[in-house]
């Protein structure tokens, strides 16, 4: 059984109504922060009180039946000396108007008399400067008891106020709707009468309606009676009374429900017998009333001088209880059940949960019960395994839409947007269910832990035996479940003395299921033998299975299974028991050390040609017989074939067979491009040479396909060696197409090479060049080249010649010497496109007037650059020039005789007078005669000279002449 961890979250506006509590003696709690904070109020008296906040959680007013106080603690105008009494158990309750946010109805009870009155006051908070005014009283019931409760109408708009008539069994339900308080009640005559003859205290004790508006509980103090009823919040009718407890020693007083309306609490205010004081809890989530009554749990503080009076559910979903100050006058703590949705003792009982500012009297606070609901209702009895659990929002007023989250993602349908919905939970467990309720721009969030109960729980046990009619007891006890056997008995156990099928209906919570057992009659203990002692192989799965019906097994190791697995050599015994006795037998088992051979080849397989398969069949003390005669335990397979092996040892011989295949690496058979020669041509495209199935882009799967139209075709194929994708372009042949490799070409020099051939490659060809190459283009220099080009549509032979350009040079000249006053004409040997001389001239002829090297750049008609040069010199014949007169008179004019030499590399001059006497001699061309002979002036007259020279051509000459010296 899975126990729930209850947690609630409620953010609705209705929940804010109960945020502020005002209760005697001048105490208050503020729940605005989520947990109560102790404060003070003006509430006095020993009885209970009532308060109400607006939808935002702001305190509006509060009352003790005698007065109505404003939120600031001052008595409201018209709110003093009310018809009610602060002595009453439930002195007041406050209901908001269904049409106005500022109007409220305060219902009050008087106390402790035969003429207790139920009145109401009409409060309008806009009056008296916004502090409110109370108008009344308005009599509703006389005589009444001190019991007063309220809840929301089933239409989620109106309210029911429930009272009980004194000396009567009548419940009076008053409707509060858009017309205000309907003074004509709905009367239900049901349950016991609240009589004055019972001891004078029948008017004492509380009455509460469950938060979901489905239950009513009354505590009748003097008679000691607690009754539970069903309440119809659509009609206001009270029905189906169930007496929870009765007796004049009980003294029940306070009562309350948990927020999920599944748990009921009542407190006992006094005791005059052995019954312990405390709080009693019941689980209402039961299909059986007997189980409901049997679920009672009692929680006590163990202090007989500190009984509990009023109980009240808080907005934090805890149930608070108020101790009575009769015996201990200075009590200032309020206790609580912190987890009231759990059954006690797991309900979180805390005797001193929160301390108050002032002492308390036992009187608590009273609210409209639906203000404290967790907002979710699920249908009773629908939270059993396999059932559809049905959910409904408790408040559907002005509801636009909802979103349910069932906290059950394993179900596959974890959410719903239906207002009234259902869900089949995936397994027995506790699930946190969320409801998001959308109204306009606001969203209210509610949650509830929902327990799904297991209805397949085996309680009674397995089928069993009885021996010769000896009795046995069948036991179906489980938690607080209620049991009803097939004979109608309700004890947890059933004595059985005869064979048959017995069953019990188990009621737990709201679920009911049946468990059964077969009882078999026997007359003897089990009769069996474990067999002869045996020898087995150590790896054999040796199981001892005596197959004994209706017997209880106890093996040597203490286990109780019906079989025993032997794992080692030894003696093994079994004690088999039934209701007639026990029989024991033993077997000795020896495990052979040689293992049982186990052989399991992989499935037939295909490998890539580059792979190998290793089969390892090695086994302990085994022999091996392969299909190829090998006797090793390991086989390396690298060739296709069928292989089998037998493996044997002393335990067994086993065999297995495997077929091994090998794939080759995939190679495409397609070329890049092929041709269709005409409109009627066809081509067969073959993908590869070794595959039977491929996938073509045409969706065909045959290895070869027939093509009749141009386009791009591809295929993909794979094997164990990998995958291959290839593409081919099929073109349409143009019968007018001419393949050109270019015309004959003149090259500028012998070293130049050019690339030529089928440069555009418009169609696929097979190329065969005279050079032996088979590429579309070749690189070649001077020569003659032939190309044979062919495809499936045409064959061509083409020739191309590459020749050297004609040479252009500077025309040769006979004499390359340039002598003074002479020019040589230089010209080129052929026409040209352009000429550029080193002199800067650009004509085809130039005149060279100086010795040196002359360069020329020539662009011929083929665009080739040609260059030439010529070396010219000035190696001319030697020349001698001599003046015929000079006058060395010192006037600076013609004072020396100098010989002018041209083209001379060696020289000697001698001068003579007329008598043949040498007057001057020199081999330095720079030396002249100054007209002196050994320092003396020569006389005027005629003189003679002889000049010996050698020119640049190494030719020697002699020159003779005369000159006149004048003084």
Could you characterize the architecture of this molecule?
By secondary structure, the protein is mainly β. The chain has nine domains: 13-372, Neuraminidase (6 Propeller); 376-452, Immunoglobulins (Immunoglobulin-like); 464-522, Sandwich (Immunoglobulin-like); 534-592, Immunoglobulins (Immunoglobulin-like), CATH 2.60.40.10; 605-663, Immunoglobulin-like; 673-732, no CATH class; 745-804, no CATH class; 805-875, Immunoglobulins (Immunoglobulin-like, Sandwich), CATH 2.60.40; and more. The protein is built from three helices and 79 strands. Strands 11, 12, 13, 14 and 15 form a five-stranded antiparallel β-sheet that branches. The longest helix has 6 residues, at 289-294. The protein is elongated. Mean pLDDT is 88; it is low at 1-12.
Which word captures the global form?
elongated
Alpha carbon gap, first and last residue: 165 Å
CATH class of the largest domain reads: Mainly Beta
The SS-based structural class is mainly beta
Strand content: over 45%
Number of helices: 3
Question: Can you give the helix content as a percent range?
Answer: under 10%
Structure summary, number of beta strands: 79
Mean pLDDT: 88
Give the total of domains.
Answer: 9
Write a short abstract of this structure.
With 967 residues, the chain is an all-beta fold. It has 3 helices and 79 strands. It has 9 domains: 360 residues, TolB, C-terminal domain (Neuraminidase); 77 residues, Immunoglobulins (Immunoglobulin-like); 59 residues, Immunoglobulin-like, CATH 2.60.40; 59 residues, Immunoglobulin-like (Sandwich), CATH 2.60.40.10; 59 residues, Immunoglobulin-like (Sandwich); 60 residues, no CATH class; 60 residues, no CATH class; 71 residues, Immunoglobulins (Immunoglobulin-like); and more.
């Amino acid at each position: 059984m899975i126990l729930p961890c209850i947690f609630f979250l409620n953010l609705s506006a209705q929940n804010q109504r109960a945020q502020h509590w005002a209760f005697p003696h001048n105490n208050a709690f503020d729940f605005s922060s989520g947990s109560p904070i102790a404060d003070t109020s003006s509430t006095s008296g020993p009885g209970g009180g009532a308060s109400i906040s607006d939808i935002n959680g702001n305190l509006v007013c509060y009352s003790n039946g005698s007065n109505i106080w404003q939120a600031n603690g001052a008595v409201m105008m018209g709110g003093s000396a009310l018809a009610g009494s602060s002595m009453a158990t439930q002195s007041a309750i406050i209901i908001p108007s269904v049409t106005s946010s500022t109007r409220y109805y305060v219902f009050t009870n008087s106390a402790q008399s035969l003429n207790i009155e139920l009145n109401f006051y009409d409060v309008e908070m806009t009056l008296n400067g916004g502090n409110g005014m109370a108008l009344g009283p308005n009599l509703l019931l006389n005589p009444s008891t001190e019991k007063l409760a309220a809840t929301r109408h089933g239409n989620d708009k109106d309210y029911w106020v429930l009272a009980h008539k004194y000396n009567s069994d009548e419940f009076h339900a008053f409707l509060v709707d858009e017309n205000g308080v309907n003074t004509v009640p709905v009367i239900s005559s049901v349950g016991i009468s609240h009589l004055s003859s019972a001891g004078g205290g029948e008017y004492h004790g509380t009455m509460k309606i469950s938060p979901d508006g489905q239950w009513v509980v009354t505590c009748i103090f003097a008679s000691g009676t607690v009754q539970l009823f069903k309440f119809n919040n659509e009609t206001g009718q009270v029905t189906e009374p169930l007496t929870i407890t009765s007796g004049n020693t009980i003294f029940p007083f306070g009562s309350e429900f948990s927020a999920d309306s599944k748990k009921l609490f009542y407190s006992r205010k006094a005791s005059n017998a052995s019954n312990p004081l405390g709080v009693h809890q019941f689980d209402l989530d039961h299909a059986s009333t007997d189980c409901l009554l049997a679920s009672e749990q009692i929680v006590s503080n163990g202090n007989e001088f500190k009984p509990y009076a009023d109980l009240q559910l808080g907005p934090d979903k805890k149930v608070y209880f108020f101790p009575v100050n009769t015996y201990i006058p200075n009590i200032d703590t309020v206790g609580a059940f912190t987890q009231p949705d759990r059954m006690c003792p797991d309900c979180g009982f805390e005797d001193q949960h929160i301390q108050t500012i002032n002492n308390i009297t036992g009187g608590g606070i009273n609210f409209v019960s639906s203000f404290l609901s967790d907002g979710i209702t699920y249908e009773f009895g629908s939270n059993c395994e396999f059932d559809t659990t049905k959910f409904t929002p408790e408040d559907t007023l002005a509801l636009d839409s909802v979103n349910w989250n069932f906290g059950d993602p394993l179900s596959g349908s974890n959410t719903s947007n239906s207002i009234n919905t259902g869900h089949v939970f995936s397994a027995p467990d506790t699930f946190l269910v969320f409801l998001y309720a959308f109204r306009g721009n606001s969203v209210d969030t509610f949650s509830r832990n929902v327990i799904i109960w297991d209805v397949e729980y085996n309680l009674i046990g397995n089928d069993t035996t009885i021996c010769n009619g000896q009795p046995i007891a069948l036991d179906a006890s489980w938690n607080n479940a209620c049991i009803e056997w097939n004979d109608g008995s309700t004890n947890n156990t059933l004595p059985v003395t005869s064979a048959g099928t017995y069953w019990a209906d188990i009621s737990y919570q709201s679920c009911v299921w049946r468990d059964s057992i077969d009882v078999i009659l026997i007359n003897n203990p089990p009769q069996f033998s474990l067999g002869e002692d045996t020898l087995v192989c150590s790896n054999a799965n040796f199981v001892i299975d005596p197959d004994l019906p209706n017997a209880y097994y106890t093996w040597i190791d203490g286990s109780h299974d019906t079989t025993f697995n032997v794992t080692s050599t030894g003696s093994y015994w079994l004690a088999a028991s039934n209701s007639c006795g026990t029989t024991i037998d033993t077997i000795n088992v020896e495990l052979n050390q040689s293992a049982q051979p186990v052989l399991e080849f992989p499935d037939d397989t295909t490998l890539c040609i580059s792979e190998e398969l290793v089969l390892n069949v090695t086994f302990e003390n085994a022999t091996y017989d392969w299909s190829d005669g090998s006797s090793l335990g390991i086989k390396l397979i690298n060739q296709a074939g069928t292989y089998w092996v037998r493996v044997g040892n002393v335990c067994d011989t086993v065999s297995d067979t495997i077929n091994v295949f090998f794939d080759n690496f995939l190679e495409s058979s397609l070329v890049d491009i092929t041709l269709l020669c005409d409109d009627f041509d066809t081509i067969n495209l073959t993908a590869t040479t070794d595959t039977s199935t491929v996938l073509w882009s045409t969706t065909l799967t045959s290895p070869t396909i027939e093509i009749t139209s141009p386009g791009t075709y591809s295929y993909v194929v794979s094997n164990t060696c990998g995958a291959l994708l290839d593409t081919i372009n099929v073109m349409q042949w143009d019968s007018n197409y001419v393949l050109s490799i270019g015309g004959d070409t003149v090259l500028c020099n012998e070293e130049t090479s050019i690339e030529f051939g089928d440069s555009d490659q418009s169609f696929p060809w097979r190329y065969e060049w005279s050079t032996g190459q088979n590429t579309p283009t070749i690189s070649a220099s001077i020569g003659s080249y032939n190309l044979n080009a062919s495809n499936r549509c045409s064959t061509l032979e083409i020739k191309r010649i590459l020749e050297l350009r004609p040479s252009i040079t500077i025309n040769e000249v006979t004499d390359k010497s340039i002598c003074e006053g002479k020019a040589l004409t230089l010209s080129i040997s052929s026409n040209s496109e352009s000429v550029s001389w080193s002199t800067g001239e650009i004509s085809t002829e130039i005149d060279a007037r100086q010795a040196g090297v002359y360069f020329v750049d020539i662009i011929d008609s083929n665009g080739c650059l040609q260059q030439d040069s010529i070396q010219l010199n000035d190696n001319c014949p030697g020349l001698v020039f001599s003046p015929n007169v000079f006058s060395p008179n010192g006037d600076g004019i013609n004072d020396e005789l100098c010989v002018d030499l041209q083209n001379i590399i060696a020289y000697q001059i001698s001068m003579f007078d007329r008598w043949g006497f040498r007057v001057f001699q020199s081999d330095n061309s720079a030396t002249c005669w100054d007209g002196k002979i050994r320092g003396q002036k020569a006389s005027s007259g005629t003189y003679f000279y002889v000049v010996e020279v050698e020119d640049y051509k190494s030719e020697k000459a002699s020159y003779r002449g005369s000159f006149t010296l004048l003084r």
